[in-house]
Structure to design on (552 residues):
C-alpha cells in the first residue's frame, strides 16, 4: 500500500554551480514534495575582502574596487563612493561633470536592467529576449568604450568630477540611442508582457507585501513593486537629479510580474532623464573641480610652478588627507539603495569602509518570497531579486 | 590512453583519424557555465547576438558531465576553490581550462586573505586571458588558440 499522505521534508542543494543563481549563490532548500518550506542562502563564495582592502588604499585607489562590487553597473558604484568622499570636503562639482555623472549613472541603470531582463527571461525559458537585450547593452558598452576606453569597469567617475570629458562621438551615439530606445523596450514588452507563459510564471509568484518590505528593508524595484513610492533620486536628491522631470514607477501587486513592470518602466524613465540631460548639458566646461584638496593641479601649472609639482607628487604618491569624521551617502542604484559609509581618522586612507549593498539586503527577503511556492518558481524568484554576488559577498 | 596505445608508429592511418577526430572536437567545444564574477558578464556578452559564440560551435552547458572546456571567469575565493576543483574533476576527458581575467589568472587586484591567487593553484590551466574584464575579442583569441591546440592532439596513438 502506498500512503499518499506522507509529508516528508527533504533538503536539496542549489548552487553554487548553477546556471540560474546569477553567480555563485548557494541555496539550501527544504522541500516538501515540490513545495518550498524554507530557503537558506549561503553567501560568501565571492568574498574578496573589498572592505578590508579599502583600509589600505588611498581614497583614489578605492575607486577601482567599487567598480567590481555591482559589476552590472560599475559607474553607479563609482558615483556612490565619490559622493561619499566628497561629503568630507564639500567639493563643488563643475556643471558639465554633474550632467555627465547623471548620464553615466543612468546609462549604467539601463545596462543593468537589460542584463536583468535578459537573464530573468532566460531562466524562465524565453531565450529571444536575452539576444535582443544584449544587443542594446552592447550599444551602451560601445558608448562607454568610446567615452572611457573600457567596456565595463571604467572607474570614470572620480572624486571631484569625472576623469576627462567625453568625445563628440559619445554624444552623437547617445542621442541616436535615446531616440530609439523606447521602441526597443516596446519590443521586449511585446515578447513578455502579454505572453501567457510569462504571466503564468510570474503573476502571484514571490509576493512581498509593503509590511514585508519595511520589515526586511528591501529597496529599489523590490520596494516599488510592492506599492511604496520611494526613490532616493527624488526624496533625498544627490547631484542634480532635482532638475529633471520623470516619473517613479510604482506597482501595487508586489509579485514578480509587478517588479517586472516596474523595471521595464524604469528603463523608459531613465531614457527620459538621459534625453533631458543631453538637452540641458552645457556645451563646454571643466569636468574636474579645481579644489586643490582633492584635484590634481593642472598640467601647465605642474610644468611651471614648484608648488603645483609638489602637490601633484604628494597626491599621486601619498594621497590626500580627509578630515576626521564619518560620512554616509546612499544613491538609488539599479538594484536599490547603495550606500557607502566611510570613517576617517584624518589620514589618507579610510579607517573603515562599510558598503550597504542593496542585493544583500534584498536577498534577506528571499525566504519570505519563496515559501509555499514550487521549487521551479525559485528560479523566477531569484531572478526577480536581481542579485549580484559581487556586492553581496564583497 | 589512446585507442592503439603505442602499438604502431605514426602512419597515414592514425594521423588521418587523429585529424578527423580533432577537427570534430574543435568545432564543438562545449564549455561548462562557470561564471564567478565580473568576467562572466563579458562571457554572456560573447554568447549573445553581437559576438555569437554559437558560430564557433560553442554552446554553454549547465553540467560538467557534458562539457569539455571550463571557462573560469572571475575571482576564485578560498570558499569557492573546492567547488571549482570538484566541477573540474566531474568533467570527462579530454578537457581544457581557460582562465579568464586577471583574478582567475593571478588574483588580480585582490591580494587578500580570502582570494586564491590564480585558479592554477587548484586546477591545471591551458590558456590565460588577461584583462579586467577581458574584451570579447580576447575570449575569441583564447578560443582560437585552444582550437589550434586541439588540432595537435594525438587521439588514436597517445
Amino acid at each position: 500500500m502506498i500512503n499518499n499522505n506522507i509529508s516528508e521534508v527533504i533538503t536539496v542543494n542549489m548552487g553554487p554551480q548553477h546556471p540560474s543563481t546569477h553567480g555563485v549563490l548557494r541555496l539550501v532548500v527544504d522541500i516538501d514534495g515540490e513545495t518550498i518550506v524554507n530557503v537558506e542562502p549561503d553567501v560568501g563564495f565571492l568574498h574578496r575582502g573589498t572592505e578590508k582592502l579599502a583600509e589600505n588604499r588611498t581614497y583614489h585607489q578605492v575607486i577601482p574596487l567599487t567598480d567590481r562590487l555591482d559589476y552590472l553597473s560599475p559607474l553607479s558604484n563609482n558615483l556612490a563612493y565619490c559622493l561619499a568622499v566628497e561629503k568630507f570636503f564639500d567639493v563643488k562639482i563643475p556643471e558639465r561633470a554633474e550632467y555627465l555623472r547623471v548620464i553615466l549613472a543612468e546609462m549604467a541603470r539601463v545596462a543593468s536592467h537589460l542584463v536583468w531582463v535578459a537573464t530573468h527571461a532566460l531562466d524562465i525559458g524565453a531565450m529571444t529576449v536575452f539576444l535582443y537585450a544584449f544587443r542594446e547593452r552592447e550599444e551602451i558598452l560601445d558608448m562607454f568604450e568610446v567615452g572611457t576606453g573600457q567596456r565595463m569597469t571604467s572607474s570614470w567617475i572620480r572624486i571631484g568630477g569625472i576623469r576627462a570629458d567625453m568625445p563628440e562621438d559619445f554624444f552623437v551615439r547617445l542621442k541616436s540611442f535615446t531616440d530609439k530606445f523606447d521602441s526597443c523596450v516596446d519590443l521586449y514588452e511585446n515578447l513578455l508582457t502579454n505572453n501567457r507563459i510569462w504571466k503564468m510564471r510570474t503573476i502571484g509568484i514571490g509576493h512581498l507585501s509593503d509590511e514585508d518590505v519595511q520589515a526586511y528593508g528591501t529597496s529599489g524595484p523590490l520596494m516599488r513593486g510592492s506599492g511604496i513610492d520611494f526613490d532616493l533620486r527624488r526624496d533625498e536628491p544627490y547631484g542634480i537629479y532635482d532638475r529633471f522631470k520623470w516619473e517613479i514607477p510604482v506597482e501595487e501587486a508586489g509579485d514578480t510580474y509587478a517588479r517586472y513592470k516596474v523595471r521595464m518602466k524604469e528603463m523608459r524613465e531613465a531614457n527620459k532623464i538621459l534625453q533631458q540631460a543631453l538637452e540641458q548639458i552645457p556645451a563646454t566646461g571643466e569636468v574636474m573641480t579645481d579644489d586643490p584638496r582633492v584635484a590634481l593641479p593642472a598640467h601647465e601649472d605642474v610644468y611651471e610652478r614648484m608648488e603645483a609639482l609638489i602637490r601633484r607628487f604628494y597626491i599621486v604618491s601619498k594621497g590626500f588627507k580627509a578630515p576626521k569624521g564619518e560620512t554616509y551617502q546612499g544613491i538609488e542604484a539599479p538594484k536599490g539603495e547603495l550606500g557607502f559609509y566611510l570613517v576617517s581618522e584624518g589620514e589618507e586612507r579610510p579607517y573603515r569602509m562599510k558598503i550597504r549593498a542593496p542585493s544583500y539586503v534584498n536577498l534577506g527577503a528571499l525566504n519570505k518570497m519563496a515559501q509555499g511556492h514550487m521549487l521551479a518558481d525559485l528560479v523566477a524568484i531569484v531572478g526577480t531579486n536581481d542579485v549580484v554576488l559581487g556586492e553581496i559577498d564583497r | 590512453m589512446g585507442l592503439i596505445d603505442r602499438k604502431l608508429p605514426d602512419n597515414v592511418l592514425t594521423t588521418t583519424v587523429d585529424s578527423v577526430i580533432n577537427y570534430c572536437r574543435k568545432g564543438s567545444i562545449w564549455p561548462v557555465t562557470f561564471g564567478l564574477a565580473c568576467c562572466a558578464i563579458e562571457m554572456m556578452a560573447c554568447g549573445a547576438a553581437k559576438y555569437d559564440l554559437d558560430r564557433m560551435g560553442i554552446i554553454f552547458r549547465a553540467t560538467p558531465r557534458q562539457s569539455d572546456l571550463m571557462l573560469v571567469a572571475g575571482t576564485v575565493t578560498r570558499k569557492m576553490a573546492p567547488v571549482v576543483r570538484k566541477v573540474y574533476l566531474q568533467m570527462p576527458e579530454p578537457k581544457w581550462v581557460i582562465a579568464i581575467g586577471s583574478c582567475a589568472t593571478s588574483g588580480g587586484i585582490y591580494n587578500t586573505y580570502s582570494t586564491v591567487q590564480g585558479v592554477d593553484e587548484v586546477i591545471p590551466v591551458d590558456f590565460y586571458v588577461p584583462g579586467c574584464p577581458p574584451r570579447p575579442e580576447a575570449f575569441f583569441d583564447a578560443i582560437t588558440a585552444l582550437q589550434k591546440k586541439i588540432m595537435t592532439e594525438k587521439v588514436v596513438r597517445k
Notes: The longest helix of chain A spans residues 95-124. The interface with chain B takes residues 16-19, 23-24, 44-49, 52-53, 64-65, 68, 71-72, 115, 118-119, 130-132, 134-135, 137-138, 141, 151-153, 389-390, 393 of chain A (CB under 8 Å). The CA atoms of residues 16 and 24 of chain A lie 5 Å apart. Chain A has one domain: 57-392.
